[in-house]
């Protein structure tokens, strides 16, 4: 007992306050809202009730949305893996002419995604889209309303979700032993046999992880079904959004979100167990750098090149048209026509000179900056605690902070809505629903796990002798952290902050549930511009927003990953 008192007395008051702040945040915003969802669904007036489940089973729209979500998830596993593997083979494995240029096209999904990407595809292929107008001029009987429903959603998401393949599967491809491939070729193995027995076994672990992520992405899809699905293809998340707007049907929204959460937990559990029990042994033993393989069959080589450039066009056309049309007037945008005399800088001038036009951008920047800085500060404190102490309390803290990683953002949003729509003592008897704080808190919550893992890794890579030396010289803990440890981990911390800022800036899937009507972020404004009743001037400004977002994303990715990691290496 005396030892515990001595240990506690050596801890500064400021440290107790920080630990208390972390504990309050975890209990109030990570644990309580998610437990409260269960209570709101299954307990009515303090009594066990299955009314929400009965309402869900009797709702044709809700059951259809569940079916559509699982259909989309399964479909994406097939289509995205096919396209993703093909992209990696084109860029990394086969000797395709112009591979570096092709790679730039395939990587465009890294600089624009989510609602920006979906709105871009609708701008190109929608009823008033450029490609649709072109096809209608070539074929007068062409149906201009063709791009909607299940197939439109599947098409867009197939090409939108290959980002992880071009990043992670490409890295896995580079780990293949070239000597093994050469040995197989010398033994007379065909190209297809080598792919099936030598290449794909090495890619198996990454492919499995990507498949799980694809299923979860399809299950929780928001932007594409909402913008392109129409009335005939509604999925879970848009349906949750519809139900959450009415207090009488919030229990249905919560139950659908809970189903989404349970599916996520089950799939993550399966992935973890499969990885533990599975045999992912690589056939490679002695590593040598992979040399790109020539396609000796002339017809096969021509087909591969044609396929590679067709895919390149699919990826690059929306980006090019968004940039070009952002420099045209509203009439050209609404009619999808290009003319040199219509080119102008007025759209860009208006965005940066008119406060009403710049306001959505300012709102998003404010949210992104505030949430990114807050989540980094929060995880720096938590990582410091995890690094300095190792006991059951720190284990509980770490698992609690990883809760948002196990839950879809939809469930987190619904949990916040149903929990903080009435005064709660833990937040000073305040109501958060309908305030700007709801969205800010949600951004912080969903970005905690990724930020924690990155910053914690930086802490544990530090040389422990540095802190010991500072302590021996009489430096206090906070001084040591501020002057010794923080400067070392600052480059990687800034990289994580930049990635978070980039991700929040055009977010729609979480934003649409919690944004304040008077402070519309960019994601909501961009989505609204895709509606049929949107004004032409609004669409013009949205194209400018999209171009600026792509430029900012490209700069962020270059700073973090390019130039040998400017942020990471300082």
Q: What can you tell me about this protein's structure?
A:
The protein is mainly α and 570 residues long. It folds into two domains: 50-325, Orthogonal Bundle (MetI-like fold); 344-570, MetI-like (MetI-like fold, Orthogonal Bundle), CATH 1.10.3720. It is 73% helix and 1% strand. It contains 28 helices and two strands. Strands 1-2 form a two-stranded antiparallel sheet. A hairpin with a 2-residue loop joins strand 1 (43-44) and strand 2. Helix 4 runs antiparallel to helix 5 (99-106), helix 9 runs antiparallel to helix 11 (191-219) and helix 10 (178-186) crosses helix 11. It is globular, with a radius of gyration of 26 Å. The model is unreliable at 279-286 (pLDDT under 50).
| Structural shape | globular
**Terminal CA distance:** 46 Å
Supply Rg.
26 Å
How much of the polypeptide forms β-strand, as a percent range? Answer: under 5%
């Amino acid at each position: 007992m005396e030892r515990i008192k001595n240990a506690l007395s050596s801890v500064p008051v400021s440290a107790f306050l920080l630990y208390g702040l972390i504990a309050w945040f975890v209990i109030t915003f990570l644990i309580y809202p998610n437990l409260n969802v269960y209570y709101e669904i299954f307990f009515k007036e303090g009594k066990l009730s299955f009314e929400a489940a009965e309402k869900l089973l009797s709702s044709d729209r809700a059951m259809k949305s569940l079916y559509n979500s699982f259909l989309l998830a399964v479909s994406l596993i097939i289509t995205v893996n096919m396209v993703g593997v093909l992209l990696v083979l084109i860029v990394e494995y086969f000797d395709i002419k112009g591979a570096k240029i092709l790679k730039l096209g395939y990587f465009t999904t890294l600089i624009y995604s989510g609602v920006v990407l979906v709105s871009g595809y609708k701008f190109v292929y929608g009823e008033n889209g450029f490609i649709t107008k072109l096809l209608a001029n070539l074929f007068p009987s062409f149906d201009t309303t063709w791009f909607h429903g299940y197939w439109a959603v599947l098409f867009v998401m197939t090409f939108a979700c290959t980002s992880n393949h071009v990043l992670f599967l490409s890295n896995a491809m580079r780990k293949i032993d070239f000597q093994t491939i050469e040995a197989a070729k010398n033994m007379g193995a065909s190209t297809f046999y080598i792919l099936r027995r030598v290449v794909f076994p090495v890619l198996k672990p990454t492919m499995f992880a990507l498949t799980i992520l694809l299923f979860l992405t399809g299950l929780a899809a928001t932007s594409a079904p909402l913008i392109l699905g129409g009335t005939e293809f509604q999925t879970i998340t848009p349906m949750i959004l519809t139900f959450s707007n009415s207090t009488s049907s919030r229990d249905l929204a919560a139950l659908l979100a809970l189903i989404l959460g349970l599916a996520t937990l089950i799939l993550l559990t399966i992935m973890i167990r499969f990885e533990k029990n599975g045999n992912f042994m690589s056939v490679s033993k002695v590593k040598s750098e992979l040399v790109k393989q020539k396609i000796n069959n002339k017809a096969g080589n021509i087909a591969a090149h044609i396929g590679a450039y067709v895919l390149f066009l699919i990826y690059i056309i929306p980006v090019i048209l968004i940039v070009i049309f952002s420099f045209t007037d509203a009439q050209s945008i609404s009619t999808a026509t290009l003319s040199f005399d219509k080119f102008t800088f007025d759209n860009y001038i208006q965005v940066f000179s008119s406060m009403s036009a710049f306001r959505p951008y300012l709102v998003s920047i404010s949210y992104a900056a505030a949430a990114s800085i807050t989540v980094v500060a929060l995880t720096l404190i938590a990582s410091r605690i995890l690094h300095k102490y190792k006991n059951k309390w720190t284990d509980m803290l770490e698992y609690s902070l990883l809760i948002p990683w196990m839950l879809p953002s939809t469930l987190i949003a619904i949990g916040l809505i149903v929990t903080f729509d009435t005064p709660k003592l833990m937040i000073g008897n305040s109501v958060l629903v309908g305030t700007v704080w709801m969205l800010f808190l949600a951004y912080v919550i969903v970005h905690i796990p990724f930020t924690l893992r990155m910053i914690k890794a930086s802490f544990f890579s530090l040389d422990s002798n540095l802190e010991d030396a500072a302590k021996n010289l009489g430096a206090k803990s906070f001084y040591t952290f501020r002057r010794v440890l923080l400067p070392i981990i600052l480059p990687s911390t800034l990289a994580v902050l930049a990635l978070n800022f980039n991700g929040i800036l055009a977010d729609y899937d979480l934003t649409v549930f919690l944004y304040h009507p008077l402070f519309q972020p960019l994601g909501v404004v961009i989505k609204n511009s895709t509606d049929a009743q949107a004004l032409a001037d609004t669409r013009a400004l949205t194209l400018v927003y999209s171009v600026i977002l792509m430029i900012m994303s490209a700069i962020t990715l270059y700073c973090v990953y390019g130039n040998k990691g400017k942020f990471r290496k300082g």
